[in-house]
Amino acid sequence: MNQDTQLFKRWQQVRARSLAIAETLSAEDCQAQSMPEASPVKWHLAHTTWFFETFILETLEPGFKPFHPAFRMLFNSYYDAVGEKQVRAQRGLLTRPSLEQVIAYRHDVDARLQALWQQQTSTPWADLLELGLQHEQQHQELMLSDIKHLFSCNPLLPGLFVTALPEPHWASPFTWQSYQASLLEIGHSGKNFCFDNEIPRHRQFVEGFEIATRLVNNGEYLAFIEAGGYQNPALWLAEGWDSIKSEQVRHPLYWHLHGPQWQEFGLHGLQDLDLHKPVCHLSYFEAAAYAHWAGARLATEAEWEYAAQQAKPPQQLFDHCWQWTSSSYAPYPGYQIPAGAIGEYNGKFMVNQYVLRGSSALTPAHHTRATYRNFFPATTRWQMSGIRLARSLSAEQPEEA
Asked: Most buried one in 90, 186, 211, 325, CB count within 10 A?
């Protein structure tokens, strides 16, 4: 199987996966928007199709005609170079086109892409197709996190998945791994796919540090709550303290207290809180306050990547929770924004956000790597974001590789 054939097969699988997520939902589920930061599932289905139509078909398809002229504006996300767009907070108002029409749009664009593929002996637009696949996988994670938030707003607290919960496998001792001060290289090596914010690979010096071998769990975070963590301003950054006071935040998003028993809402519905499971759905401010209370801090993204590169990396790096770092989302040294509208994918968001590393339980398989840089504003709680602690080594402390 040659490279083009493999790419086409992956394209079919990714496109089918988005529809499979939607098939578990009603048309009403796919229409609603629970907050400005989230989007309706119907919009996700249309926008990921819009990406292929706008950036591939519009340029390369002979005699191109849009599926519907209005879709170019309705399903544009943030690409100002493409033209006008629907206000993000009002995507849920798009009751037309219907979900049925959006699915027809997907099938039409897929058929035209397949025809374009068959017309060409090679795919000079393979890089754009790959970016579109990676983009759609990002939206698959967003579809699940958005529907989770939507269902959490429903008094019935419905679950999306009816299958049994996976067997718990969270319990492991909390220890520290030490790393020597080092001049290291971080960033993507240039092999296989990466987003433009992962390059260029560059040198960065880190002082000696320790990093936790696993994520902070629910039981440990519950101890923070019971110790008055949400009532102690000395633990919080000023903006974080103002945020939790104004929003009346007293525990992680999706936690519920029923009598003496804490429960947690998830895609399986409301379940008793598993004390050994990694705590998630925390803002940067909550993660930083817990770290302060625990006598530690959040890792920098360079420290996180350094630890991930080791032969024996810390546990729970991937597939559990995205992990807040103390690093502001900024361009790497030598970074250049790609030309054209595609350059708006990452570069223009490099301000007022923090980097998260790893991946979550909702991240699509094979969509994780040690160099991946996720990013969100400090108040974000609806993503599966958790805590990995770090500590600086003083000159007197021993350092272990």
From this structure: 325
List pLDDT tens digits, range 66-81: 999 999 999 999 999 9
**Which DSSP string do the residues of 156-175 spell out, in sequence order?**
T---S--SPPPPP-------
Cis peptide preceding 97, ω within 30 of 0? yes
Give me the domains of the chain, ranges plus CATH numbers: 3-152 (1.20.120), 176-392 (3.90.1580.10)
Q: Exposed, middle or buried, 164 (CB in 10 Å: 0-12/13-18/19+)? A: exposed
Q: Most distant CA pair in the chain: distance in Å?
A: 71
Of 157, 350, 334, the closest CA to residue 256 belongs to 157
Cβ neighbours, 10 Å, residue 365? 9
- Beta bridge pairs of residue 176: 212
What DSSP designation does 83 have?
-
28 beta partners: none
Assess contact for 301 and 331: CB atoms under 8 A. Answer: no
pLDDT number for residue 162: 72
Quote the mean pLDDT of the chain: 94
pTM above 0.85, yes or no: yes
Residue carrying structure tokens 């025809």: 115
Q: How far apart are CA 323 and CA 313, in angstroms?
A: 15
- Tell me the C-alpha distance between 311 and 370, whole Å: 13
| 84: DSSP letter | -
Bridge partners, 278 (sequence order): 217
Q: Is 350 exposed, middle or buried (0-12, 13-18, 19+ CB in 10 A)?
A: middle
Return the percentage of the chain with pLDDT > 90, whole number: 87
204 token code pair: 């960065």
The CA–CA distances, whole Å, from 276 to 14, 49, 168, 363, 381 equal 33, 40, 9, 21, 20
Q: How many residues does the chain have?
A: 401
